[in-house]
Amino acid sequence: MQKIDLRSDTVTKPTPEMREAMAKAEVGDDVYQEDPTVNRLEERAAEILGKQAGLFVPSGVMGNTIGLKLHTEHGQEVICDSRSHILNYELSMLAWFGGCLARPVPTADGILSWDVIAPEIRQVSPHWAPTGLIEIENTHNVGGGMVYPQPILDEICDRAHERGLPVHMDGARLFNAAAASGFTAQRIAEKVDTVMFCLSKGLGAPVGSMLVGPRALMDKGRLYRKRLGGGMRQAGILAAAGLVALEKMPLRLAEDHANARFLAEKLATIEGIRLDASRVRTNIVFFDVSGTPFSAAQFAARLAREGVLMNAMGPMLVRLVTHYDVPKELCEVAVKTIENVLRKA
Ligand code: TLP
Fold it and tell me: Domains (ranges, CATH) in the chain?
């Protein structure tokens, strides 16, 4: 049975062009900064985002962990959305490595605004841990792949900077935000201090994320990367795939977004499934199964038996993520399979 894997865009396999680039990659020892392919990837990532320097890291979690650490001191707070990835899915690295407390702010769809951030900022006092950083996630994963409206993001950065606070962006899916908004990744990231984005999600590289920002911070970040076990030696093999991902794959993300909209519009018509298809902007679709005989975990397990893989993200909440390895025809099969399973139930 052919598997239709909609659990995440992390499951994408490298393209033939990536594999060829990997086979031919020029390499060196990247801990000595002598890997020409890693160096090129770091330069290109910085150039594309309009920042001074880049740092190639093995994962998004490591990129965020280093990014958060670079701006903060132990004992500070980081303001973030209450459903942010850094708070809920990163094994508390913000606390474990960074020594900071998350100050979560509830939002409807993961999108913070200055109005909800400002009251949460804490100054130095005998009782409070002072705010060290504001973290935003764009696109917002559990918010349903939501994209920050650019004026809201710009305002957060401007006001934060007036207060002397830096802003880190978890842009794991930054290029999805760019494809959906029409703004370039550079414009989206213009005012944030550091950005992490993933090569290994919708961009299809097998491994790797980038942290970009001021050169002095990236130099310091290199040391944190080493501490975390991310000094990767002949990593040009991976960076070669990353370069193909960075240069070629952003152009096709609109296709994943169209497939996500297709899935959402079809699922919205199925009895028992609740979702607002008009909110689907990128490659992530969340829906509620409380009107079906299944919990989210049972729903995902039942569909897995039919070869359609998805993730339960809450007791009644299921997530589908579209990507390069699931073309439109397979999305059509996925919808039919879901319809059949629910009809039989
Ligand atoms: N997200 C994964 C899971 O961890 C939930 C997924 O399947 O969506 N930031 C954001 C917004 C992410 O969605 C992810 C991965 C990361 C950071 C971490 O990236 P990796 O998995 O490369 O460490």
Answer: 4-10+252-344 (3.90.1150.10), 12-249 (3.40.640.10)
